[in-house]
Amino acid sequence: MCPQAAPGRVRAAPRAPGPHNVCRLLARRAHGFYARDAGVAHRKNLGLLRKIMCQESTKFKNVWSTHSASPIAYERGRIYMDNYQCCISSIAQAPRILYQKSKCAKSEKIEDALLLECPLGEMLPSPSDYKASLIVLTVQNWLLRLSADSGEVLEKIYLAGSCCKSFRYLSWDTPQEVMVVKTVQNKLPAAARQAGIQQSVLFYLAVFQVLPLSFIGMLEINKKIFGNSVTDVAVSNGILIVMYSMGLVRLYNFKAILEQFMEQPFDLGQEFNWNGQVGVVGKYPFGLPCNIKITDTPPLLFEASSLENAFQIGGYPWHYIITPNKKKHKGVFHICSLKDNALAKNGVQDMKCCSLEPDWIYFHPDMSGRIIHVGPNLIKVLKLKEVKNHADQMEIAEDFTIVANRENCVNNTVTVTASGRVVKKRFNLLDDDPEQETFKIVDYEDELDLLSTVAVTQIGADGRAHLDFHCNEHGILLKSIPLRESWDVTYSHEVYFDKDLVLHIEQKPNRRFSCYVYQMVCDSAKDD
Length: 528
What we know:
- There is one protein chain.
- This protein has a domain at about 105-305.
- It is about 10% helix and about 45% strand.
- The chain is mainly beta and about 525 residues long.
- It starts with about 20 loop residues before the first helix and ends with a helix.
- Keywords: Membrane, Transmembrane, Transmembrane helix.
- Pfam families: DCAF17.
- InterPro entries: DCAF17 (IPR031620).
């Protein structure tokens, strides 16, 4: 029995009955049951945008194009040209220049860049931190943070001290949280090698926390620790990945390395006396101290041998994809359990393509654990599932397929002429023959939950491409957009699909670049 309410007190109204299971609560929130949830309106708007975009009357119109003698890059609604000196907004009805800086000297050339966006719910020290910015790396080893809208320099860090001179690459360890700056591989000149001079340090890695930008540490990859045949290194999701010339890939716990081998932490702007050098961290000419010294081989998490060091981890439970380390197995992919290296049932994927360009495979970026396998005329979306009556074993099953439109393609080896003469062909067409529709690009638009594909057909000297949108859950074709410009299959191409925007960047021979922008337009007369 409930106790009586005390005199003069008002009893609270009982809570409305509802689901108390966490999974049900999350599912109901994802479907928009809670109107006060900040994400509900955004999800509804994206759902409306997807419906509008996929309706028959909606078209994508080529609204702008440009050509350049320098590379063109795209990041979240911004087009960068002239080595990031010119920034153009692609969000407006017609693209407009956000800023145009004077041409920079060769010593200020930008080698790599990352877009940095403000984290949600974080208290940041500077008002400028709440706006998008661009992290760029210059040829003279300066790390700059620029305003994405004005190009103004917000922060400036000098990287290279006396130990290293050639930082060239930016990448994310944890996206929008931890950034890694890497040097090119240190190689001695031929004269120095002939003189017997030894070079033991292969790479340097500088690690930063972003927003606010702070220095975590710098470490060296030394052949005395990791071996002579190291060809490349990377850091991703807290894992140090070391690649070797014979196809071996080794994984180490990067966080454990930082904790075990860091000699002394440093802050940017801090005065220091390090190995006889006195200076300020991140300032010229001292740069950053190499404060993480790996003196012993770290504990090995995992290793695998794969052709061309191709190695991916994903799925649930965790699996990895490799190609057996022999040239005859190129195009054959093995999907194995990370737990015990067991090959999944149906885990050998081989399209048996006869093509100039190989097929490719990767874990689906939608975090569903599925796998996308792309061939010249076929896209397979695969899924991991438990083997019936064997809960500890997984098998690879087909979720859905997308097939290129080759209805009019007839590849007969024997033909009969009008006079009745039988003619036999001495060769068959390749699977990626330019005259047949061939898949060139497959991507995923996470906000609209659409799988996009670019298929190309070469008609004489003229190539035609179309961008198709497929339902990510079932693979059903929802929309097809023809690209107006000619597509040469011998050139390099990038296609970005970003909500209501399609952008095509093409690289021609002799460093000639072109950019074509398409925007969504609705035929109001048909809609009415």
